[in-house]
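Predict structure. Chain length: 262.
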Amino acid sequence: MRSFEGKPSTQVGLREDLATIGVTPGMTLLVHSSLSSIGWVVGGAPTVVRALLSALGEGGTLVMPAETPLCADPATWTSPRLPEAWLEDVREHLPVFDARTTPTTMGAICESFRNWPDTLRSNHPVESVCARGIEAPGIVSEHPLAFPEGPGGPFEKLYDLDCRILLLGVGFNRCTALHFAESQIDRRRLKTLRFPVLDNGRRTWVEVPNVADDNSTLFPVVGEQFATEERARRGRIGDAPSVLFPMRSLVEYAVRYFEEVL
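Prediction complete.
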């Protein structure tokens, strides 16, 4: 049974917390989040989305990852990890990604935002991004199949905009900008993405390269070093320890770090 401690979080309270940590109207903000870290929220995930949109105002842009790892080859799934005997059947019947209807597995806040009126979504079968606001059309308009977290897609657009990143109750292991940073160097770690697509109405499997998963080894180290040395803004959103910082500064710092250690 859940323990009810402290105070519940409300839209007004979350809006005040966002302002205190440095979220301002007109900002382009990429959010990685955990609803459970915030504590008890009156109204749940939609309340968090409303607070974020209110903090950014009509001139701002809210961005969240909308990744769909369950649209990839089931042999690569980690949650759930399927029995070997199931894989061929699952591959044969795995639905093709649909930007309008395929849910994200990035948490309740991201899924609520995906369904929000006027939210746009990039068209990548595994690494899509959702955005709403002034800059949203440009951010989601192009998303290459290969190296989807690298140049030519939403993360380069966000880098060019020098967006702010808010880690809301999550660590740097969840920070996709570090994948973008790693994609810039020659010794980047690699993996293969394999997923079904529709090609002239026919379902076919595609294989493309991407930067590899970090598995929580380097990203938390470089992220915390950056946050300490560059004086990222720290605070709490509800009960959630949170960090706010410029994407461009993190990427430039991480590129230097990766070039030394990889």
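Summary: The radius of gyration is 18 Å.
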